[in-house]
Amino acid sequence: GKSLLPLVTGKSDKWRQYLAYERNVDAINLYFPQRALRDSRYKIIWSPLAADKRPDAGAWDYVTQAKWAKCSYSEAEVKELPEDVQQVYTTWLNPPEYQLYDLKNDEWEFNNLAGKKEYARIEARLKTALKQWMKETDDWAADPAKLKMLTEETDSLTKAGKGKYPKDGWQYLNY
């Protein structure tokens, strides 16, 4: 946390340069860690499991379980949607390792700018800031060995049909 006092008292009009976000393992069936960082205009999202072509389990769970609430589309319905919406849906279910969005010109995050030459400096700056934040917060996801251990732990629980939460608690808290 950071004090809002300088903003409230008028001693500063800038509170912070970046806002960071993390998604971990809320439940076995939702496992898909992500990290994101944004500044006043751009947002970068890192999905470490996407490098292994692993789909977002939480998104797939939502798609398959949210039918009762009419919150999502079937595969057949997605094919009937406009092409840009189909792409967003595809990205949600199977995200690339990095996503970069210009929140000023694309507030709904339809156009992934990651890997585009004209945004390379912005992408590099945000990746550096994200990695620095992960280092400062001692983020376990920055350690490939810990990421692998948690992935193996989650996969073993999934294969064993252990429900949404481990009976004896998450072991990753110990490593």
Estimate what percentage of residues fall within beta strands.
5-15%
The stretches of 5 or more residues where confidence is low (pLDDT under 50) are none
What series of H and E elements makes up the topology? HEEEHHHEHH
Please state how the strands of the largest beta sheet are arranged side by side: 1-2-3-4
Q: Separation of termini?
A: 25 Å
Largest sheet: number of strands, sense, barrel closure: 4 strands, antiparallel
Q: What's the count of strands?
A: 4
The number of helical segments is 6
Q: Could you say which structural class the secondary elements and strand pairing correspond to?
A: alpha+beta
**What is the arithmetic mean of pLDDT?**
88
Approximate helicity band: 25-40%
- From the spread of the alpha carbons, the general shape counts as globular
Rg calc = 18 Å
Task: Describe the protein.
With 175 residues, this protein is of the alpha+beta class. 35% of the residues lie in helices and 11% in strands. The protein has a four-stranded antiparallel sheet, covered by helices on one side. The model has no long low-confidence stretch (mean pLDDT 88).
